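Handoff note, outgoing to incoming analyst
You'll be picking up this chain. Sequence as last confirmed:
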Amino acid sequence: MRERLFNDNAQLVINQKEAPAQIEELLVWHRQYHIRGMQITEPEVDSWLPVLAELNLRLKALQEPVWQLTIAPPAPIDTGKRFALFRQKAGAAELNRGRAKTGLNERKKLWPDDSWFDVRPDTEKCILCSACAAVCQESAILIENNQFTVDKTKCSGCMSCKDVCFPKAIDVVPMAEKNSLPVHYSYFDAHCKSCHLPFMSWQPEQTLCPICQSRKEKGWL
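Most recent structure output, in case you need it:
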């Protein structure tokens, strides 16, 4: 949790060389402190511009006000080190200080109806084994009652579903979206004519389960 300075104009103040913030942190500042811009000293502008541009793209997707940029001239250097140190402390005291928790859980609390990832199953490859739903700790994937349901607002982007999928039939793509609704894909209950076991299929006329279908394609059936 990083402490930052902000002024009465609802701007984060970047007045010294530091690593640019992550987009996730700035989104928390946007919602928690109602920050709407940055005041950056001239030497640091170039390193922060890509971050500000990406942030504004996310905010536009979420239908939120974009951040404005104010470029401040470099602070004058005083010949007396003691006086310079005193003036820096005095200047910092005039600004507000705050801390913003980062991480997806904090972002979810502040943006509960919006999503940050798009979960995309490939129905041409997916064999409906349900492994992705089983490993998803956020319950972003639910497979039941002939519906493969993806709730993007719950997805944390952990990629567990993608890692466990051996047919490589699911992808997780970063994408900001406002007021995301669950996406439903229909599947059918089927019965394999070869092994006589029930299975789930994307096609109503499928008569071989994925294992028997694979064996048939290899000439083993």
